[in-house]
């Protein structure tokens, strides 16, 4: 059985078929908005994923899947289009339009999409995409001696996307999807399918402050190999004449002189950070890293 097939089986049981939202930020009525779940498995080879009610396999029905994936690309454009436009050439190392690169990435083998569609319009309002993968930066200690590290790298669930349209944001939906359903999916994969998934991992643009706040709030940390901010202290240029003048005025060597003016720090941000959420329930396994 393929990892993707396991992922589909578990996610189908854990993520609810419908979600009810009390507030629809776009309307003034108190009517509940109902969202219906749809799953898409990206299996370019045959992974025996049965196409059934609201579960699509890319291998078996790529035409239907392409229609939905293009709608998800529109959500991405709506939410993060300007950031992708700015960073595309750096992150994809080419000059193609960002959407062209993104749609290829969105069809990466092994990805599972959990999509929630509006009950009335049938259009997607939110989606997550994730896959099981290895992370060589996270190492698993051996059972008998926690100081001795085995060579096996840890498996993680890599969250490629979590995207909510603005009208359904800030209602704890993102929190519930990650800390409840996705975490539970990992726990079941470990317990019932003998996986060693020790964390949820993701990449976030360093200028996506709202998302960073959200991830920190749910307990995510920097991975050991995440790019980090660099603090640059500008050196003040001092001429020989000002040094002598300062020394004679204060009657002490210039090295001991301090200026009262605070030095302005310059913070240089990387393009993105790598974050992870440890899954404590993955019993004996611990993370080999020291993160703040
Ligand atoms: C980021 C996102 C997934 C969060 O989902 P959500 O359902 O809106 O978030 P929640 O309601 O669960 O928020 C939980 C906490 O996160 C923080 N948070 C969420 N959205 C925030 C925002 N826009 N600005 C600042 N903090 C925010 C808050 O501290 C909030 O806690 P509070 O309600 O007690 O203040 C969602 O807003 C989204 O899809 N944003 C656009 C796309 C995006 O940036 N995705 C991430 C790509 S890496």
UniProtKB/TrEMBL annotation:
List the GO cellular component terms. Answer: cytoplasm; nucleus
For this chain, one GO molecular function annotation is: protein N-terminal-serine acetyltransferase activity
Q: Which UniProt keywords apply?
A: Acyltransferase, Cytoplasm, Nucleus, Transferase
Q: Just give the chief location class.
A: cytoplasm
Q: List where in the cell it is found.
A: Cytoplasm; Nucleus
Q: Which domain of life is it from?
A: Eukaryota
Q: Which InterPro entries match?
A: Acyl_CoA_acyltransferase, NAA40
> PANTHER family, from UniProt?
N-ALPHA-ACETYLTRANSFERASE 40
Q: What is this protein called?
A: N-alpha-acetyltransferase 40
């Amino acid at each position: 059985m393929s990892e993707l097939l396991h992922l589909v089986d578990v996610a189908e049981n854990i993520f609810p078929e419908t979600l009810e939202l009390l507030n629809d930020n776009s309307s003034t009525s108190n009517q509940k908005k109902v969202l219906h779940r749809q799953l898409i498995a990206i299996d370019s080879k045959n992974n025996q994923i049965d196409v059934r009610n609201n579960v699509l396999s890319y291998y078996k029905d790529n035409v239907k899947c392409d229609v939905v994936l293009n709608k998800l690309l529109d959500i991405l454009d709506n939410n993060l289009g300007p950031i992708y436009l700015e960073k595309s050439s750096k992150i994809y190392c080419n000059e193609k339009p960002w959407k062209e690169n993104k749609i290829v990435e969105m069809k990466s083998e092994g990805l599972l999409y959990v999509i929630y569609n509006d009950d009335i319009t049938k259009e997607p309002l939110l989606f997550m995409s994730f896959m099981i993968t290895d992370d060589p930066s996270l190492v698993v200690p051996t059972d008998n001696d926690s100081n001795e590290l085995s060579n096996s790298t840890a498996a993680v669930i890599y969250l490629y996307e979590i995207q909510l349209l603005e009208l359904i944001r800030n209602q704890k939906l993102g929190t519930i999807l990650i800390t409840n359903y996705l975490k539970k999916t990992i726990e079941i994969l470990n317990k019932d399918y003998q996986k060693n998934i020790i964390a949820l991992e993701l990449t976030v643009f360093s200028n996506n402050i709202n998302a960073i706040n959200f991830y920190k709030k749910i307990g995510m940390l920097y991975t050991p190999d995440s790019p980090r901010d660099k603090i640059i202290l500008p050196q003040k240029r001092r001429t020989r004449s000002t040094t002598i003048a300062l020394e004679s005025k204060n009657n002490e060597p210039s090295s001991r002189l301090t200026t009262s003016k605070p030095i302005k720090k310059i913070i240089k941000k990387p393009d993105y950070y790598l974050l992870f959420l440890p899954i404590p329930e993955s019993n004996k396994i611990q993370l080999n890293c020291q993160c703040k």
